[in-house]
Amino acid sequence: MLSIQLQPFPELNTERLTLKQLHNDHSNDIYILRSDQYIMKYINIPLIQSIEEAESLIEKLNNQWRNKEGITWGISNKGEDKIIGTILFKHIDAVNHRAEVGYLLSAAYWRKGIIQEALTTVLQYGFNTLNLHSIEAIVNPENIASIGVLEKNNFIKEAHFKENFYSEGDFLDSAVYSLLKSNFK
Ligand SMILES: CC(C)(COP(=O)(O)OP(=O)(O)OC[C@H]1O[C@@H](n2cnc3c(N)ncnc32)[C@H](O)[C@@H]1OP(=O)(O)O)[C@@H](O)C(=O)NCCC(=O)NCCS
Q1: In this predicted structure, what is the pLDDT of residue 171?
Q2: Which residues contact 110 (CB under 8 A, 6 or more apart)?
């Protein structure tokens, strides 16, 4: 079984970004991101409704990190504390050396290569520091932008589940993409 070591919180830097631990001071930024219907259109989980919910979410994400179940980084421009997006590993599966990656970004920053930059660093961390063997992403098949990100990064579509995801009265399809360490460039 893989020994997962996430302490102390691994702050990561890229050319333009800092990927950092979320704190209560970021609750307004997280509220803005996670209450935005446009950003959340294909994530299909309930929008958060208040700053208090954002605070609870940050606490939950930090508990997942403490319990080695996942890790969420807030994405900020270097030198700034404002969180413009998030990128995470969840469902860390130490037995199978696998985790799920997810990301979202404020629409004002789309198509500037921000997630590409963050994802490259997070995948490096996942494969080279955590020693994962594979990383998966679960997407709504209509999420062209996210599928574009995954394909650009060598993820391969492995499964398409029909109507397996219940969201607000509808059963949605989901697709599983994955990247093996050996295919990570
Ligand atoms: C998906 C998302 C994170 C992409 O972030 P981004 O910073 O705009 O992406 P990047 O600029 O780094 O793009 C990297 C590559 O992804 C692909 N891509 C990104 N947006 C795309 C789009 N709208 N259509 C097609 N391909 C797209 C392209 O291949 C792009 O490379 P290129 O610019 O050289 O062509 C962003 O659109 C987002 O936050 N969407 C809402 C949240 C979400 O759906 N998250 C994913 C849940 S599974």
Answers
A1: 98
A2: 145
